[in-house]
Amino acid sequence: MTETTTRLHEPAVLVLEDGTRYEGRAYGARGRTLGEAVFATGMTGYQETLTDPSYAGQIVMMTAPHVGNTGMNDEDMESARIWVAGFIVRDPSRVVSNFRSQRSLDDDLASAGVVGISGIDTRALTRHLRSAGSMRAGVFSGDDVALSHGEQLELVQTAAEMSGRNLSGAVSTTEAYQLPATGERVGTVAVLDLGVKTSTLNFLAERGFDVHVVPQSVTAEEVLALAPDALFFSNGPGDPAASDRHVEILRSALRAGVPYFGICFGNQLLGRALGYGTYKLPFGHRGINQPVIDRATGRVEITAHNHGFAVDAPIDRISESSEGFGRVEVSHVDLNDNVVEGLNCLDIPAFSVQYHPESAAGPRDANYLFDRFRDMVIASKENQA
Questions:
Q1: How crowded is the C-beta side of 192, counted as CA atoms within 13 Å?
Q2: One of 48, 128, 246, 264 is an active-site residue; which one?
Q3: Catalytic-role residue among 128, 212, 307, 356
Q4: pLDDT of 295-352, one tens digit each?
Q5: How confident is the model at residue 1 (pLDDT cuts 50, 70, 90)?
């Protein structure tokens, strides 16, 4: 048996915090990893998923059975590195078959130190997580696969839970940087990097914004000192209830009349800034095929999602912000479970969506939201003139 064949048959085990075990084969790096086990339903786009900072702290399982066919390349990276805590697939591709590929998925996982597992019944695991909810988990391979069942389970059960965790500091840039507008210039937008994706910044620049990306450690005074024409809060990992400081930054900007657009984590933080609560979903929305209705038009959009928390706002009526920001409507709703997928402020220039309109990877149904943001900023500047 060759070294390559031996490597493909090294044992690994996935252990869930409820004691459920799945035995499979080692994939990617060898060793031990701990995180929250979640599933992503996209049939494509595994590279964008792996490099999305929003997946930090999560062991991601792909529900698509065959993963790795198109390899990996530098062009489709959504950040500078792979962020998932671990990776689970059923059948990893043995051959890379794409002219754009530069490396195999297995090689990239190994070089990034991402411990994975393959060869398990991912359909059974998906059904289990849908019933029991996302939970802490561990993948063990190499020397760690020899740990006793009790030792492995204890490691999983004593790991940090996602609820209450602030992970933005782990994924945000540490230094501010700028991207010039590539479209007809509209103005400047300050982007709070809570785990921003490269495609998001490119789409903002294409809409005519000079993009000023600032770290999550920035203060409200520093943001306002930039005198931005608009403010954008990005996607990101963790519990929005653990980001009080970012909520206060947003409130300060809204009180100063700065137009605002937020996506994903930025939607949850707008909800909190307006006075609404947030809560953890049983198993979240992750994938590129989530149906969402735009309540203003009745149009159904197929959208890209990655969130385990949601805003607790009334979907049956316009409500009043308890923080003094006027009337608020839920603009978008998930058709699978009626989760709030967007907020629209009727008395101030601010809106947000829970999904990923930058469509990386995923459908482009919601890309128009960047145009809506541009138009809102232009209208706001005209009103101030």
A1: 35
A2: 264
A3: 356
A4: 999 999 999 999 999 999 999 999 999 999 999 999 999 999 999 999 999 999 999 9
A5: very low
pLDDT range class, residue 43, cuts 50, 70, 90: confident
Catalytic residue flag (residue 264): yes
Active site annotation includes 323: no
- Structure confidence by residue, pLDDT tens digits, 162-205: 999 999 999 999 999 999 999 999 999 999 999 999 999 999 99
Share of the chain above pLDDT 70, in %: 97
Q: What is the pLDDT of residue 365?
A: 84
Q: Would you state the pLDDT for residue 10?
A: 96
Catalytic one among 36, 329, 341, 358?
A: 358
Q: Catalytic annotation on 341?
A: no
Binding-site positions: 54, 236, 238, 265, 268, 306, 308-309
pLDDT recorded at residue 8: 61
Cα–Cα distances (Å) from 109 to 52, 66, 71, 170, 183, in that order, read 14, 16, 11, 19, 36
pLDDT classification of 5: cutoffs 50, 70, 90: very low
> Binding site membership for L-glutamine: which residues?
54, 236, 238, 265, 268, 306, 308-309
Q: What is the 3-state secondary structure (H, E, C) of the chain?
A: CCHHHHHHCCEEEEEECCCCEEEEEEEEECCEEEEEEEEECCCCCHHHHHCCHHHECEEEEECCCEECCCCECCCCCCCCCCCECEEECCEECCCCCCCCCCECHHHHHHHCCCEEEECCCHHHHHHHHHHHCCEEEEEEEHHHHHCCHHHHHHHHHCCCCCCCCCCHHHHCCCCCEEECCCCCCCEEEEEECCCCCHHHHHHHHHCCEEEEEECCCCCHHHHHHCCCCEEEECCCCCCHHHCHHHHHHHHHHHHCCCCEEEECHHHHHHHHHHCCEEEEEEEEEEEEEEEEEECCCCEEEEEEEEEEEEEECCCCCCEECCCCCCEEEEEEEECCCCCEEEEEECCCCEEEECCCCCCCCCCCCCCHHHHHHHHHHHHHHHHHC
